[in-house]
Amino acid sequence: MTQGIYIVGAEPGSGKSVIALGMMEMLSGSMGKIGFFRPVVRDEKKPDPITSLIIKRYGLDHPYDKLYGCGYDVTHDMLPEQG
User: Fold this and answer.
1) Is residue 32 within 8 Å of residue 2, measured between CB atoms?
2) What is the reported pLDDT for 11?
3) Please, which residues bridge with residue 68 across strands?
4) What is the DSSP letter of 69?
5) Nearest to 74, CA basis, from 41, 37, 36, 50
6) Is the distance from CB of 35 to CB of 27 less than 8 angstroms?
7) pTM over 0.90
8) pLDDT for 2
9) CB atoms within 10 A of CB 51
10) Beta bridge partners of 40
11) What is the pLDDT at residue 44?
12) b/e string for 52-81 if b means 16 or more Cβ within 10 A?
């Protein structure tokens, strides 16, 4: 059975990355296999530092481009026009 932990925050700088790293560290010692997915990264053209760190630290075997959903520019384009 697949289980997931979702870490969310209402604003930037709320500590989500630190919590994600702590959870990965804790789970890597007690779980057989762990995964990671970041729904939105700052820039799809540059490697995301947190995602890159987690791939390297925990030896994830998925390609980088499969571990995130989209860049901030895509989400910005989805916002309604304000006038």
Assistant:
1) no
2) 83
3) 38
4) E
5) 41
6) no
7) no
8) 66
9) 19
10) 70
11) 85
12) eebbeebebeeeeeebbeebeeeeeeeeee
One-letter amino acid for residue 11 of the chain: E
Tokens of 15: 């500590």
CA atoms within 13 A on the CB side of 16: 16
CA distance 39 to 31: 23
Which residues are bridge partners to 41 per DSSP? 71
* Residue 72, both tokens: 């901030």
pLDDT at position 83 is 55
Chain position carrying tokens 């970041």: 38
Looking up tokens 């790293």 gives 21
**How confident is the chain (83 residues) per 10-residue block, as mean pLDDT?**
81 88 89 85 88 92 91 77 62
DSSP H or E segment with residue 39: strand 38-41
| Residue spans of alpha helices (H) in the chain | 16-30, 49-58, 72-78
